[in-house]
Amino acid sequence: MLNIAKLSVSAAGRTLLHEVSFSVAASEMLCVIGESGAGKSTLLKGLMGLMPCRYERFEHRSSAEESAFATTSGLGLPACRYVMQDPLAALNPKRSLGQSICESLYTQKLPAPEQRNRALSALEAVELPVEFYDRLPKEVSLGQAQRACLARALVAEPELIIFDEPLSALDALVQKKIALKMDQLRREIGITYIVVTHDLGFAAAYADRILLLRNGRMETFQDKGDFFANPASAYASDLVGAAQTLGALNRMEAAE
Amino acid sequence: MSMSLSNPNVKQTIPAMPGTWTLMVFALTLGAGMLMTPYDPTQADFLNRLATPSALHWFGTDHLGRDIATRVLYGSFWSLGLSLGVVSIGAAIGTIVGLVAAQNGRWVDMILMRTTDSFFAFPELISAVTIAGLFGPSTMNLVLALIVVSWMKFARLVRSLAISVVQQDYILQARLNGLPAWRVLWQHNLPNILPGVFVLWTNSWSRTILAISGLSFLGFGVQPPNAEWGAMLLDGKAYLLTAPHIMIFPGLAVLFAVLTINLTGDRWRDRLADNI
Amino acid sequence: MNALLTRLGGLVTVLFGISFITFAVTHFAPGDKALAIAQARYPGEMGFDAEILEGIRDEFHLDRPFISQYLHWLVDFLTGDFGRSYSSHSKVWDIFAGNLEETFSLAITALTLGLAAAFLLAGLAVWRKGSLIDRFAILLASVGAAIPSFWLSILLILLFSAHLGWLPAYGTGTLAQLVLPTVTLAFWVMSSQTRLLRSFLLEAYDQPFVETLRLRSVSEREIFFSHVLRHALSPALTMIGLDLAGLIEGAVIVEIIFARSGLGSLLAGSVLARDLPVVVFLVMFFALTYVLINTVIDLVQTFTDPRHLAGERNAV
User: Fold this and answer.
1) What DSSP designation does C170 have?
2) Quick one: which of B59, B172, C229, C308 has the most CB atoms within 10 Å?
3) Which residues are CB-contacts of A126 (< 8 A; sequence separation ≥ 6)?
4) How many DSSP H helices and E strands does chain C contain?
5) How many other C-beta atoms can be found within 10 angstroms of the C-beta atom of residue A19?
6) What confidence tens digit (pLDDT) does each residue in A179-190 have?
7) CA–CA distance from A55 to each of A3, A9, A32, A210 (Å)?
8) B176–A48 CB contact, under 8 Å
């Protein structure tokens, strides 16, 4: 589905992320983990097309693009939607949830009733009542707002959804519910997920592949099973060990 | 009794603050009054000069026998209408400057904000006196002078609001969703900026009413025989000792108009703060 | 350090901006400047020969391009040469210095009186929050902000000069003539500060240390005078500083109303007589005073609270 080799992201002439390679197959979930400052959000901005990128190979679906370190203004993935960390910042406080969801369909130029119908079924898919279409962000709970953000991503029927710490603003109980919902939708509809997170427990429970970043470089890129069974680097095994001590992995696996 | 001071909220202690309705009743009274008065605001009646308030002339007559009540009513057109125009134009200019500065950043921002700072250094009334005086005292020059001194507050406010809005994730989402720039501005930036501008707008409106009447009273604004409240006071100044009633009502009108707008603005501001 | 340099650069830019705006406004005002100078120089005469006007244009460099005239004036201004009045031929600086004291004494007296009243009123309002005194203080502040100062002065004249005959209405010189203008201006100071002071005091009472002091059974009087008041003083001083520019402006307007000599009457007279050197200097003086006051407040805040250094300069 997505296969990127030696991706570097730079800003103002400085390279912030060095030669990261990873791939994710259709309807798989890739978790990008690492401590703060590791380059997670830089990778995200590169993928969003907000920062200039260089890469050796960039395959997206069937279309492959190969170049010897071509410089682009950004990748700007087609058929992709985004879910941000803080749902209240990601939703315009002056617009209803329905309006925000419909905005995701802007480039598809659908007639208004059609847009509304699709927004309503997206609300249904994330288990929000239809009357939430006319609610303002401040009138719903944080978890409900994040569900609306998920609906906004789903309504465009994307092949890929990129999440930026989608759970870290939420309470533990709500975290679990939304994580389960995300996982269920991915399996049912067959969307590919890239999830940036610092929550190793979440990655252990739901990811197919794990990309570990450290200090702006790629540390490891492994299947989930391999990553937790025999981590490819000392740093990765420290990380897994620490998480096991804290019981984070068991907790999330129990949730599943 | 010990001082119990848990809530510093001013709102509670203000008795029955007038809101939008008061403003509308105020406007309707003015309109109805202008339609119903039997007098002409500029028609002199020399047999009735300097008459004290009576059933026929509620506020009395001035030195030319003109009905003061009628002139106060018509004066609202000058004081309220003119200031409304001045503030709206100033707000529009300031909003555009602030938006452009926030959107472009770097050099454009620096140049525009230093220009704003420079204009800010001139005290409002002093610049208005100077401009209106040098360019010739007239209504038009008064309006120009007041616009020149009124836009900077809006530019600063809009810039700071716009910068904080631009950093919000919903703007990024809109761009990632492929919305064109003008649509992002219209649907996302402006709706989150304009409420703040509106509060400043009511505040500036009342200040401008004070400025227009003050400058007219000093002879730098609307000229007699136009029935502007400040100009009426200037007209009556010579009769201060013989017919003091001339000086009372136009001043009361200014006081009442400014007080109403200020209190309404306070109410709107509180309501807006609740909404955010 | 870097932030300080940036700010200094901004300050210099703003000063240039001020000088440019001032000069441009006076330069592009309608009317023949040579004629204005001639009329001021030879009062009583109406028609002037073309040669006289030509001579004046030459003398004052009036036929040079705008930028050249501006730079010429700016260099003079920076080197302390503020020119001479068209009408009286005295040095602008001397005229200014002669009028400064009147305005200054009016402003300082009014500031002292107004602040004393504001502190008293705000203190009483906070002492009995929600009581009649509190409501009265808020009402007075609201009305004070809405009352046109020129109208207030008329009312004062009507009452104290016309009706009671206690005080003279117009003029300068005696102490009695200072009373009504001072009261007018002091009322403005009081109404603009009472409400702010009240909220600063209430905020100070909200601080956790007040409860601690009460638990240690410190008397209410001591809490107010040695803790709360001190806590509220810092924001209050900032607001008062910001209002100083407004005070000078108010003084100018009040002077014109009461026909007192001082900077206000000087400005109004010079504007109407098109005595441009005086006008330019006065406008520059008011603008520079504003910038000076703001810079001082800014610096004081920076040195008392280092967090301000990184923050925005212009708090809205």
Assistant:
1) S
2) B59
3) A147, A148, A150, A151, A154, A181, A185
4) 14, 0
5) 15
6) 988 888 888 888
7) 11, 9, 18, 20
8) yes
Q: Given the DSSP bridges, would you call strands A209-214 and A217-223 parallel, antiparallel or unpaired?
A: antiparallel
How much is the pLDDT for B8? 38
- Structure token digits, residue A227: 């990553």
* Pairwise CB contact (< 8 Å): B187 & A92: yes
Each residue's pLDDT expressed in tens, for chain B with a length of 276 residues: 333 333 333 343 333 345 667 777 777 777 777 777 777 777 766 677 666 777 666 677 777 767 777 788 888 888 888 888 999 999 999 999 998 888 777 888 888 988 888 888 888 888 888 888 888 888 888 888 899 888 999 999 999 888 888 888 898 888 888 888 888 888 888 888 888 888 888 889 888 998 888 888 888 888 777 778 888 888 877 777 777 778 888 888 888 888 888 888 877 777 776 655
Q: Which residues touch B266 (CB under 8 Å, ≥6 apart)?
A: B14, B17
Please give the interface size between A and B, counted as residue pairs whose CB atoms are below 8 Å apart: 47
How close, in Å, is residue C59 to chain B by CA atoms?
22
**Residue B198 C-beta-side C-alpha neighbours within 13 Å:** 16
Domain A1-79+160-256, CATH number (from 3.55.30.10, 3.40.50.300, 3.30.70.240, 3.30.457.10):
3.40.50.300
Q: Any idea where the domains of chain B sit in the sequence?
A: 66-275
Residue range C92-315, CATH number: 1.10.3720.10
Total-model pTM:
0.77
Here the tokens at position C76 are 């003079």
Beta bridge partners of B61: B67
Q: Are B180 and B121 in contact (CB under 8 A)?
A: no
* Alpha carbons A227 and A211: distance in angstroms, whole number: 9
Here the tokens at position B105 are 């950043």
Give ipTM to 2 decimals.
0.80
Pairing of strands A160-164, A80-83: parallel
- Name the nearest CA neighbour of C141 among C181, C196, C180: C196
Sequence-distant (≥ 6) Cβ neighbours of residue A116 within 8 angstroms: A98, A102, A133
**A217: Cβ–Cβ under 8 A, 6 or more apart, which residues?**
A17, A18, A19, A20, A39
Q: Which two tokens stand for residue B244?
A: 């003091």
A9: pLDDT strictly greater than 60:
yes
Domain segments of chain C: what residues?
2-78, 92-315
Distances (CA, A) of C222 to A107, C54, C116, C216, C234: 68, 74, 20, 12, 19
| Residues of A with Cβ-Cβ distance to B184 under 8 angstroms | none
Q: Say yes or no for a CB contact (<8 Å) between B122 and C18.
A: yes
Q: Within the 31-70 window of chain B, which residues sit less than 8 Å (CB to CB) from chain C?
A: none
| Binary contact (A92, B178; C-beta < 8 A) | no
pLDDT at A169 over 50: yes
> DSSP string covering A221-241, please?
EEEHHHHHHS-SSHHHHHHHH
Provide CATH code, domain B66-275: 1.10.3720.10
Of the listed ranges A115-124, C58-67, C177-186, the one predicted with least confidence: C58-67
Is the distance from CB of A70 to CB of A52 less than 8 angstroms? no
Q: Is residue B226 left, alpha or beta, with left meaning phi > 0 and alpha meaning psi from -120 to 50?
A: beta
Q: CATH 3.40.50.300 residue ranges in chain A?
A: 1-79+160-256
Residue B231 phi, psi dihedral angles, 5° rounding: -65, -35
C192 min Cα distance to partner chain B (Å):
13
Which of C21, C135, C257 shows the shortest C-beta gap to B119?
C21
